[in-house]
Amino acid sequence: MSVQAKLKVGLIGLGSIGSHHVQYLRTMDNIELVGVCDTNKVKADSTAAQANTTAYYTYQELFDQSGLEAVIIAVPHYDHTPISVDAFQRGLHVMCEKPLAVHLNDAYQTIDAYEAAKQINPNIEFALMFQERTLPFYMKIKEILSSGELGQLTRATWIHTAWFRSQAYYDGGDWRATWAGEGGGILTNQCPHTLDMYQYLFGLPEEITGHAHIGKYHNIEVEDEVTAYFEHANGMIGHLIVTTAESPGTNRMEIIGENGKLVYEDEKLIFYRNRISMLKYSQETPNRFEKLENWYTEIPVNTNAPSGHKVVTQKFVQRILTGSGDLIAHGTEGVNSLTLANGIMLSSFKKQTVAVPFDTDEYESKLKDLISTSKFVKPQANAAAQTENGDFTKSFSTSKK
Questions:
Q1: Regarding the domain with residue range 133-305+336-395, which homologous superfamily does it belong to in the CATH classification?
Q2: Tens-binned pLDDT, residue by residue, of the chain (401 aa)
Q3: Which of 341, 338, 346 is closest to 362 using CA atoms?
Q4: Phi-psi region of 4 (alpha: psi -120 to 50; beta: other; left: phi over 0)
Q5: What are phi and psi of 334, to 5 degrees?
Q6: Sheet (strand 70-73) strand order
Q7: Three-class SS of residue 224?
Q8: Which long-range contacts (CB under 8 A, 24 or more apart) does 209-213 make?
């Protein structure tokens, strides 16, 4: 009996999401976790002991000493860029947590390093942890849109306010919800998945109009409520409404096409199918007020299909070990959701619509200015606590009740 090949994997960052990665990595029989890394030595040591691996306290030590072939990066956002660039320069396969970077100029640095690494090893892999692409309802929506059943799309409206975060959450770390530490608020932390899914389903718009409210409901210096309006080249318009302040929150997506309306909410996917194209009907009917006949259909969705972080990592490992299968999200795709995030904020700062593509230097300059002029100070008692309370997995979106 042949011995199954194993990929030597290292994990950098052992906060909430890094600890989640450790849990499922330990169940995968085609990887060897050769090291875990965190600047918090106590956390690194305890995690390494639980996972029966070696603790490292700098990512350079992990790269130099562990013998890893692939790395999973789960550190604060600004560190995604230097660590991924260094990994590619060493010829390592990279799986990066969302977002790819804080701003597009950093994202392009990572992609340049990846392209350079490909010149040396065409089989080097670069993946992003956009696990929401694996959620059954979103997969079904993608399937329906790709089939063309809705015909010409005219509107997409997504109200995604099921991201409630308390003040205690924001007070739980010096870096959290600051321009210098995190680079933004809900668009940078909670909603990269939402932004990725929007562009995955509809593509990038030609124009973005954003309204971002800074610290409206929390004592933070970044955005906690955002409303955005998108105009697409094909005439479709889009709306996005997100916040970390609503409870109960909403996750409702309406997609309108000439052949009907698709609605996702409360773990149901409904297709209101028009008898004929509404655009054709509008031009040809002699009736002035009579609405077009449509049929209500609840679309069946297999909610028991495997989904989540482990599925994304399994695809990544499979690609490396066998060269087969597709990544859930290729690393270079990360620029699209970042274009939406940076574009919304730039539009809000400028108080005007911005065209896509926009000046990435202008946004980076604005971000640096916000960092250099920040006078925000977190309450000392709360900032010193640095604790994470509650079940972190409850923050994940899911297609199951």
A1: Dihydrodipicolinate Reductase; domain 2 (3.30.360.10)
A2: 456 789 999 999 999 899 999 999 999 999 999 999 999 999 999 999 999 999 999 999 999 999 999 999 999 999 999 999 999 999 999 999 999 999 999 999 999 999 999 999 999 999 999 999 999 999 999 999 999 999 999 999 999 999 999 999 999 888 889 999 999 999 999 999 999 999 999 999 999 999 999 999 999 999 999 999 999 999 999 999 999 999 999 999 999 999 999 999 999 999 999 999 999 999 999 999 999 999 999 999 999 999 999 999 999 999 999 999 999 999 999 999 999 999 999 999 999 999 999 999 999 999 999 999 999 987 764 444 444 555 555 556 654 33
A3: 346
A4: beta
A5: -65, -20
A6: 55-56, 31-37, 7-12, 70-73, 93-96, 126-128
A7: strand
A8: 209/347, 209/352, 209/353, 209/354, 210/343, 210/344, 210/345, 210/346, 210/347, 210/348, 211/348, 212/187, 212/344, 212/345, 212/348
Which single residue is written with the structure tokens 């709306």? 239
- Give the predicted TM-score (pTM) of the model: 0.94
Q: What is the CATH number of domain 7-131+307-330?
A: 3.40.50.720
Residues facing residue 212 across a β-bridge: 226
- Which pair of tokens denotes residue 248? 């109960």
Alpha helix segments (H runs only) across 160-223: 167-170, 192-202
Written as six digits, the tokens of 355 are 């065209």
* Residue 250: how many other CB atoms lie within 10 Å: 14
Within 10 angstroms of residue 326's Cβ, the number of other Cβ atoms is 9
User: What CA–CA distances, in Å, run from 222 to 178, 180, 198, 349?
Assistant: 6, 10, 22, 12
Give the chain's length. 401
- The CA–CA distances, whole Å, from 18 to 48, 71, 310, 392, 393 equal 12, 12, 13, 11, 12
Query: Cα separation of 244 and 364, whole Å?
Result: 24
Torsion of CA 328, 332, 338, 340, to 10 degrees: -80
Tokens of 7: 């990929």
Domain boundaries, the chain: 7-131+307-330, 133-305+336-395
DSSP codes, 12-55:
E--SHHHHHHHHHHTT-TTEEEEEEE-S-HHHHHHHHHHHTS-E
